[in-house]
Amino acid sequence: MCGIVGYTGTGEAGRVLVEGLKKLEYRGYDSAGVALHENGRLIVTKAAGSVADLEKMLNDQYQAVRVGIGHTRWATHGPPTDLNAHPHSSASGDIVVVHNGIIENHRSLRRKLGEEAGYKFRSETDSEVLAHLIEHCYDGDLLKAVRKAMSQVDGSYALVAACTREPDRLVCARKDSPLIIGLGAGENFVASDVPALLAHTRRACVMDDGEFASLTPGKVEVSGADGKLIKKDILEINWDIEAAEKGGYDHFMLKEIMEQPVAVRETLRQRIDSASGRVDLAEFDLPPEQLRTLEKIYIIACGTAYHAGLIGKMVIEKLAGIPVEVEVASEFRYRGPLFNTNQLAIVISQSGETADTLAGLRLARSKELPVLAITNVVGSSVSREADLVLYTWAGPEIAVASTKAYVTQLVALYLVAVYLGQTRNILDPGLAAGLVKGLLGLPGQLKEVLSDENIAKIRTYCNHLVNWDNAFFIGRSLDYPVAMEGALKLKEISYIHAEACAAGELKHGPLALIEEGAPVVVLATQKAVLEKTLSNVQVVNARGGAVFAITREDFDDVERQVDSIFYLPAVNDILAPVLSVVPTQLIAYYTAVARGCSVDKPRNLAKSVTVE
Ligand code: AGP
Fold first, then answer.
1. Which atom of ligand 1 is the closest one to the Cα of 301?
2. To test ligand 1's pocket by mutation, which of 354, 376, 382, 398 has the most ligand atoms within 8 angstroms of CB?
3. Residues 193, 270 within the same domain
4. What percentage of the chain reaches a pLDDT higher than 90?
5. Among all residues, which ones are annotated catalytic?
6. What secondary structure letter does DSSP report for 511?
7. Per the confidence metrics, is the pTM higher than 0.85?
8. Cβ-contact 211, 228 below 8 angstroms
9. Which residues fall within 8 angstroms of residue 521, CB to CB, at 6 or more apart?
10. Which residue range(s) make up the domain with 313?
11. How many CB atoms lie under 10 A from the CB of residue 336?
């Protein structure tokens, strides 16, 4: 859950590292540090705080330095303190490391290094053990030392090491945590993610589990545990650098909300044949006979991706006639699911690195279920371990609160549902044609939802919400998972406690909390249950709750029953969640802004959750 950057070349290493770390702060941001080669020594500067704090500490004093490593941390072992910040140095200071992941046997290694070799530990981290262990294994060749050290390590790691005696060399190792090598001219880079590289190079290769790399300014060599060289594919990264930056908005989150029309359009691109009205998912490459005989689908995901899965369940069951179980990934593997042949697992993960989701994927594969991954990150662990991958083309999502990735996950699930329904000859062609047309119309409708006028309406509502400590989101049918997502988003970034409730469940308990003025957001987009939802609204009205309704312009009976209203364009019931989630995102965003919260980096959270 940390960000790593390494640089070896002829440029200003300190600046490259700090700028790279800024781009990786979404991975964790409780402390930061760099180690820079200077006059035969590795000088470490690190502290609890942000990369901006680190930058001030460095104060341009390392302009002449050409090689170094940097790290931004999200605490796992040991609180965010100066000492626990990375990089960590060996006893002599000759070896310095940055690490992302968890060393599971760090206690026994500590004991061994402490008792048998007399090493003294300075931090509470599991990572420090790697610096001492590599020094212990060092015999004049850093790559050999890292290889030998990592053969004794259990756990996950993206590791970059530097050594005073090999001043222009960095050595990397990877297992279960991402590491990407950026290839430059007379300079090379390594980082946890692409945004840290984009300012310098667009040529990169993704390290695989069990690989090691040696980087000098003029050479990159990737090898396996046996020392044999591995020929890597070079990727040309075509992301626009602007796409990884805020593009004029105050926050990444708002920028990403505004990018949703494009994200949805990109995710649909080339997956629909509008002439025939058929969904064509080349990525879902299982024999049609296997798809026809599927008896059950498990959807495995966490947080927002789990909420997308809840909608996926309803839609797949309806359109493809296959029973679906949606599983919170952290629960899935501990509850002993009943696996069988003729089942499929779908894992959903924006980052593709979420530890719980990855564990669910591995469990499903170990039981011989084919796994389809829906993910946003090319080269992510999920994408590489799944049998089949359906990318959401949302572009990099930097804000911790997921928005554009979520709507593209919904779109991917709709495509899967229609594809399965068509392949299994279950889906009525008229309904399929309507859905395909509806899907293609979503980008334009999202733009309408994001109009200035609509945003002004949301801001007015937030003036009310901002003063409350509790809020409620209610809905029925497909509106219920959207209510769950709206509540998660509000609590995640505004720190207002928000509860989602199936509207029909209010009377079974939560209604006791409704008092005069209590903010209640009702999602009312489903024709079949509209009347039922409105009777639940009446119950809230009778207790004085302040109801904000998100509904469709073709539902004309809602306005007179609520305090304020947000109209979505007329839309097919099944597709409504793609539109109705947007006002909930905007409510969370503008409430968080009004409360002065750190919108893009909410307290205690990180973008990519690579620990269980
Ligand atoms: C979303 O706003 C959250 N930050 C969080 O719930 C997130 O969706 C979850 O951690 C799963 O992440 P993933 O999609 O990268 O696997």
1. 16
2. 354
3. no
4. 81
5. 2, 607
6. G
7. no
8. no
9. 471, 472, 473, 474, 483, 486, 547, 548, 549, 550, 584, 587
10. 254-445
11. 7
